[in-house]
Amino acid sequence: MSHDEFEISAYRPQYRTGIVQLLSFLWGQDHEQNLNHFNWKYEKNPFAKDPEAYVALHQGRVVGFLGYFVNCWQWGGTDRVFALPCGSDLIVHPEVRKKGLMKAMHGAAFKELERKYSHILVFSPNKDSTPGALSLGFIPLVKVERLRRYSISAILRSRGQKAAAPVPDQAVPKLGTFGSIEVTDRPLVDPMTALVQSKPSEAGKIVLLKNRDFFAWRYESKRRKYLFYYYWENGELRGYMVLRAMSHPPSGVILDFEQTESAVFGRLLEFVIGHVRWSTLTIWDLGLEKEVRQRLRRRRFIRSGAVERLFKGSKADPFVLLRPSKENFEEPDFQAHGFDLKNPANWELKEICSDIS
Known about the structure:
Elements: E1 6-10, H1 16-22, H2 24-27, H3 31-43, E2 52-58, E3 61-75, E4 81-92, H4 101-113, E5 119-122, H5 130-135, E6 139-143, E7 146-150, H6 152-158, H7 168-171, E8 176-178, E9 181-184, H8 189-198, E10 206-208, H9 212-218, E11 226-233, E12 236-246, E13 251-259, H10 262-275, E14 280-284, H11 290-298, E15 302-303, H12 306-312, E16 319-324, E17 335-336, E18 339-340
Parallel strand pairs: 4-5, 13-14
Antiparallel strand pairs: 1-2, 2-3, 3-4, 3-10, 5-16, 6-16, 7-14, 7-15, 8-9, 9-11, 11-12, 12-13, 17-18
Helix pairs in contact: 1-3, 10-11
């Protein structure tokens, strides 16, 4: 096949079935689950009027896909809100790889995205995709640092030793109310929205917009299991913590949290640690407040990978990547509304910002 035999097109609904079939190379073979996830991620995103996605076609068949996950952001201390696409799913069918289709899809995407957005982010590059992203003009914004709390069984597994089986009643999350803390598997949309809106955004920070539309949509993916921890005081929500929960072994990732004061974070953290016999608990450490980081350190959260590197060698950490959306850009294009977008200190980044959370 020659390059001329392929067509690059913006997303259209008639391509959906072919796209979902192709995405099985990334998402697994559960077609129904993949279709639901695609509809949630691209069709139902409240921050994108239409799916920001592109396909490569060969004789009408979808053989390549490039999708962008759109979030809204807010200039801290102002009412200015803006959307940014995040490079997300990228796949070319094995039969037609190394024919320039990835570059062609990106070229078409940049021309279209420039009309709508100022910049593009990538939250989920890996060691294989990062060189390609850098060649497309993305720059490393910040290295993704994580703090992780390890159980004894997790340490034994890292050493190649067999860990004792977890106690069943501590390995399964229990939902319900436990004193001041409520645990659910669904977001409480209105109380969470009210809590976030009651806190003034920090001036000088670019923060993820978490409004009612966000909370009503963000956790609807059927490919993820979420746990929501709420701290109530006199009938008022004073803080929440959201975990992505995984089994075999039970592990949790703290995706998002908000609180009226740092002590509330501490109470939620203490409860979460004791709620399940977690193998590991992990949280992004990108600009965490000093008191929050201190509380994590006191509860034995250490640099992620420290235990694994002791026994299995070093593993490269990913970066959050950034570039202006215009095809040809210069250094001033990394400035916007008085913010230096290349300075990670100007961003509030939690794992909920990522498309893979």
